[in-house]
Amino acid sequence: MSGLPERASNLIGGVLEPSSGDATAVTSPWTGEPIGSVGGGDAATVDRAVAAARAALPGWSSTPSTRRARVLTRLAGLIEANATELAATISLDNGKTLADARAELERAREHLEAAATAPALLAGEHVVDVVSGIDATLVREPIGVAAIVAPFNFPIMTGLIYWSWALACGNTVVIKPSEQAPYGGSALGRLFREAGFPDGVVNIVQGGRVTVEALCDHPDVASVSLVGSSATAAAVYARASAAGKRAQAAGGARNPLVALPDADPDVVATAVTTSAFGMSGQRCLSSSILVTVGDQPALLDAVVRTARESTVAPSPDAAGLPPMISQAAVDAVTGVLTRAGEDVLVDGRSALTPGKGYLIGPSVVRAAESSPLMTDEIFGPVLFVVAVPTLDAALAFVNASPFGNAASIYTTDGAAARTFTSRADVGNIGVNVGVAAPTAQVGFGGRRRSFLGTIHSQGRTAVDFFTDLKSVSARWVS
């Protein structure tokens, strides 16, 4: 009925095959009904995938970088040509609206096109007569087999942010989609070969913790890149690093949006609610805490009004808040609202549909700076509102958070925006921007519990992560 294979697929050495290990049901967030299953994975399957990637490495790494870039560009074209089918798959097992799924695919194409510019960033350095008679050359080389562990919320785009640059730099990859959205995560499987990737250059292995740990432990895996919760990021970073691998692990977030009194309350209300409730808050760059400098009753009224006017999407082709990824995710949000008690100003629990999918409406909660809910990882459509007396106090609040992914400020005061940009201790800043997402060409990464590692993703930083430097000193004696 769904048009999907009975079990989500692996891609190993160019061959699609059912995922291995004990199967668990995959349910559609729209209905709560099973749409297929996914295997839990096993070390033997990981070993086969890594072996395929390792075997393909010499040929791919020696392929001229401009030819590798052309393959990435062809894949971008195939994504565009197959956008209707890909968006439907994403929506079915991830729960996005079709509009959100199409937007994800558009961003994925942008990232592929950005990664196709890698040849310009792979240039080395050459110094003649660094000392008398000796020339020095610095070259970049691929690091080997790169493992990519992708999240459920952008099942195609987020993993692609990493593996596109890894491939552009001459590495081969093993991609582990989220077990919560395995069909969306592997939807490109059949397009890799059509784009021109040789067998084994791109591999996909489904599964959960067993698969991730096998990738972290495998001696032929050179690096691990992950996006997930802070707890998962910490565990994977520690395990991969202990095995001597390069690792970058993006964790959770609680992103504040600071509103100064000079900002238009209706503009801020639209920006913060769009950010907080878009994709039902299941984005790592969602603004989930509104920090007002001073009491701003007009802004609070506008936020409450906008939240109450927001609706849930009854179907994938409708507008509104989509369902959450699982019943467990819904239960986590309802638990937060129960703990918030009388501070709940707008209660999304009124939209719950028990037994009919994982829909929940937008919620607004008024909280104190010291509330323990400020440090919880809440991945859902809940906006907290906190009032502080000054911009300095707002910056102190931002910087005291255990998370450091993103922060935004809304103001017409250039000096205040400059102060915020300079002093906010986060990885991504937005100025009059509700979702501080950098473009595909610009480095992206958080701080503290939001990121573990020393090198971020995208652009030049991705080239730094996925290449090693080699220094060559040469003297030619006649």
Automatic annotation (TrEMBL):
The keyword Oxidoreductase applies. Gene3D superfamilies: Aldehyde Dehydrogenase, Chain A, domain 1, Aldehyde Dehydrogenase, Chain A, domain 2. Residues 21-472 form the Aldehyde dehydrogenase domain. GO terms for molecular function: methylmalonate-semialdehyde dehydrogenase (acylating, NAD) activity. Residues 21-30 have a biased composition (Polar residues). It comes from the Bacteria. Residues 1-39 are annotated as: Disordered. Keywords: Oxidoreductase. GO terms for biological process: L-valine catabolic process; thymine catabolic process. Pfam families: Aldedh (PF00171). This is Malonate-semialdehyde dehydrogenase (Acetylating)/methylmalonate-semialdehyde dehydrogenase. It comes from Actinoplanes lutulentus. The lineage of its organism: Bacteria, Bacillati, Actinomycetota, Actinomycetes, Micromonosporales.
